[in-house]
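We treat protein structure as text, and this decision shapes the records that our systems exchange. We quote a single record here, exactly as it is kept in our systems:
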Amino acid sequence: MGVLSWDCFLPILLVVGQQLCDSGSTADGCLQLHPPRVVVRHGDSVSVNCTVSTDHIGMGWAAPVDDVPITSGVQFLTWRVESLRIWDLKPLCYANRPGKAQCIERLSVTVYKPPDNVSVSSMNSTDPMVEGSQYQLKCEIQNIAPVQNLTVKWYKGDTLVHEDRDYVIKVKKPEREKAPVSVSSTLLITANRTANRTDDNVQYSCGAELDLGPEGPQPPLAVKSTPLRVTVHYKPTINPIVTDLHVIHGYSAVLNCSAKGNPPPDIVWIFNGRQLPTQDGIYTISERDDEGKYTCRANNSVGIHEETVRVIVTENYMPLIAGILVVLVLAISLAFCVIYSIYYKNKKMGHYSLKNVKLCTQNGNVAQNGNSLPMTRLPE
């Protein structure tokens, strides 16, 4: 039998292919593809072998690019493309058997393309965000395929905060469209601030990830955007300060107030509705100031925070206390002297007799007729 031409065989093949529905192969599996599924980057080469396990009168590859004509006397045929640039294709390997149904095996081909660019921006004003308000961020992904395998991942710093996969519905093309498309994803955020952290200066980024299964790149191909740094304005919060300040009359004291906020707040001290001269949140109380409630006020474009300190002026009793201590010391010293004097006199006074007293001359020599005698105390 002569070799059949592709033009003659194509109508029969299409009819058979329609009868196979989506199974992609005949019932007895007389053809095997190696590999059975390929994932190819757009523009790269691809090569697949088709092997027949039964007698046949001819086999070939039907494909929109580099098809292989029906060939007899072989057990396998290779479909090879040096640079695959077709997005949607379903190559078929077939074999004609005498007196039996045609063998056919469909090759699953996925052609992918990384995005040209991934970027993130704010959909609202470019002005700084305000604490407590909501904002939308937009991630734009340009020319990626196949979009059905795309997952967009949103990051806050290094933390994954959201994933978006619903892109089959979003693109305005048939669901099975394989060509590159440009898509976007949005993320709704609330500019927050807590006691320990704030969203100010946080970086948001998004990434486009193509998960093409075990035949695709491992790990899955991912392209990440340049981070978007977020500026958040929030009202001031005054750091803890004392509630009562005791000041000794005649002495000075310092009122110190600091606060956090963005933009950096202005800090002033206020007394009786009068703004006091404040330097870097510090006001020095002098002896001319009155006692009462002094208010620290921190304010910026977002809000105001106030805290009050009660200043209590007390009299200076130190000189009086020092005088009393001096008098007590003198009184105790005098009393000790008197008691000691009385005790000494009672201890040493009495009647004594002189025996053998040495007589001394004026120059300290002992008189010739003097005798040395002990002196003893007479009984009372």
In short: The helical segments are 6-19, 318-348.
